[in-house]
Amino acid sequence: SQPHIPATNSAAHLGTKEDPAHFVVCHVSAQSNRMAGGQVKCLSVIGFSLICLKMAYSKISNSITVEWATVPGATGYLLTARDGNTVIETVVANSPGTVTGLKAATLYQITIRSISPAGRSQASPPKQAKTVLAAPILQVSSPSPDSILVQWKSVYMATGFSVSIMRANGLGRIWKENTTNTSLTFTSLDAGTLYTIKAYAWNASGTPGDDSTCNQRTGPRAPANIQVSFDSGSLKASVSWAPTEGAFNYTVMALSDSSRLSCSTTFSSCTISPLQCGTEYLISVLATNDAGSSRSISAVTLKTVACAPGRVTIQEDPPGHLSVAWSNVHLGDYYVAFVKSDDGLEVHCNTSFTQCNFLSECGFTYFISVFAYNKAGQSPLGDVFNYTTAPCCPGDINPVLVSSDRVEIVWSPVRGAELYETKAVDGFSVVECNDTVPACTLSALECDTKYNITVYSFSEVRGSNTSCTSRFITTAPCSPEIKNVSKDAFSMINVYWRSTNDEATYTVTAQGEKGLHRCSSTGESCTLWGLPCGSVFSVTAVAETPAGRSLPSYSVPLETVPCCPASLTETQVTQSVINVSWTVGTGAQTYVTVLESHTGQSKCHTRQNHCLLGCITCGINYTVALKAISATGLTADCGYQSYSSSSCCPLEVKLYRLGPNGIRIYWQASRGSANYSTDLYGSKGIFTCAPSAGLSFCDITEIPCGDVYTVMVSPVAETGLKLTFCPKKIYS
């Protein structure tokens, strides 16, 4: 209903904020094209500024781009796309602006408002714009090495599709096809090559929509020129072929009536194993890449070696003649039988039949094997059979070890013996051992006993040869049993044992960290001398006869008393406390220290090597005793010289002034005779006075006045050491 304004290219500003002005609104008629434009209509509005919307167009199926003339003073713009009841808004800063999140192939009404600090303007006259078609969703595959099939679902509002293909590396030509179908096949392509496919739909007006791009490789060509090399020893086949363009890997398949084998590789050769003997295989090669696979057109036939002949039978009839027979095998052209004796001599026969005859000798073991042959080679090794003639008796039986309960004997091997049976007889007692080697260990025998030992040879076919001779062997003596270990007053160790041996010599050994100590006897006791103190020993006894030595007896532990400390020192700590210290005694774990006088006893028990003893009476003599005690309670009594405690501190110490620079110190002598020393300690010096013998006072003169002194009277030890623990007086 508003009057038309002559067309212009943009909105003209006609006033200011203080003077409401006329503004121009531009209407642009829509065109049916991807970039729509049209004639501009201008409206005169009082107040807020309306916008001249130049054009709206769609390049992507989910968005529409809008262009407009900039409005002075605007801080942003509100774009609105309306589709029926659906409204989508977007705020942008400048022209052009894009509304996203739209539906493909859909007609929208587009309006725009400017935003300024004063608010929003009125919406511009609407402009219609339609989103382009959506991109087709492609499904591609390579049905053959020279073709690619492209398929897609229908696209809304689409009337046709355009599909193009080219090499992914950009080389070569581009194929482009238009179609109204939903599938298309490109042929005459290169095998094993990666191609790029691009497709888009267009609508009735021919406007193209979004495009879709994907890559697809063509399948490889089928392998050719297949060569097969068979290894009869390891039953494997090496297969090679000409490389195929575009193949990522190859799979070789070997098919028979009963099995299926394969191997895979990225090279042009592969090894299949293990193949079965006596089997015919068809071998083919499959080339594969990410597009599919191609199998070789023709298969190669491979015949493997025959299997080893079975049901082999061996007979000795008459003695001295061996007859070897076997069953016929598939794919076997002829046979070879080998007979090898245990002395290394080997003979064989070559035949197209299934039997061979050989000469044999007594006392030998023969190893027999049969092979089948064809053009592929020799059959695998089958079972190896052995045939043994009657064995001979073992000779030169020798004992290599004789103990109290075992005898180990060896002898030279004899021909034909598969097993040796050894018997040891003692009256009605029999001990046996069977073994396949020419050696035997007879165990669980009685000690110090004479046995009659015989070795028989045995073969499963012939049995035992009972004409073999025997020999006598006596076992080693029995182990003695230690009954008692005692210690006499002279620190000698007496060991007593019990034994049932005849004419045996016994050796007793005491072994410890400080060495070995031995004694020997033919009786049932002996004496060990000179064992060091503070040591632990393991005492064992061994019996010996001409037949050998017995096992050691069970060990008996022996512990000697701990060693006394080498030195002991007493130090007076206070008038009634003494610190006693000593060196470590070997083998001692704890110590008991005792100081004793007529006035009483002071005692301590400690794990350390020093101890404080209290309640000591000053000025008297003490006897000093120390006990070293082991972990098991063994005690060593250690004696040391007596100790005299320090003299007692003087009593009733009094101070008298002698003029301004002198002082007399008086005291009462304590129990016992002692020499005393008087000391004054001040900030200006130390002053000492030693009284004449028999006097109990001392004068100190010429001391500085105006000072505070600490006065102490202390007894002097015989060594001249002054004791410092007596009480002190203060003198000013």
UniProtKB/TrEMBL annotation:
A Pfam family per the record? fn3
| Alphabetical list of PANTHER family matching this protein | FIBRONECTIN TYPE III DOMAIN-CONTAINING PROTEIN 7
> So which domain of life are we looking at?
Eukaryota
UniProt signal peptide: none
- SMART domains under this entry? FN3
Lineage runs: Eukaryota, Metazoa, Chordata, Craniata, Vertebrata
Q: Where are the transmembrane segments?
A: none
- Name the source organism: Balaenoptera physalus
**For the Fibronectin type-III domain, which residue ranges apply?**
134-221, 222-307, 308-392, 393-478
What's the protein here called?
Answer: Fibronectin type-III domain-containing protein
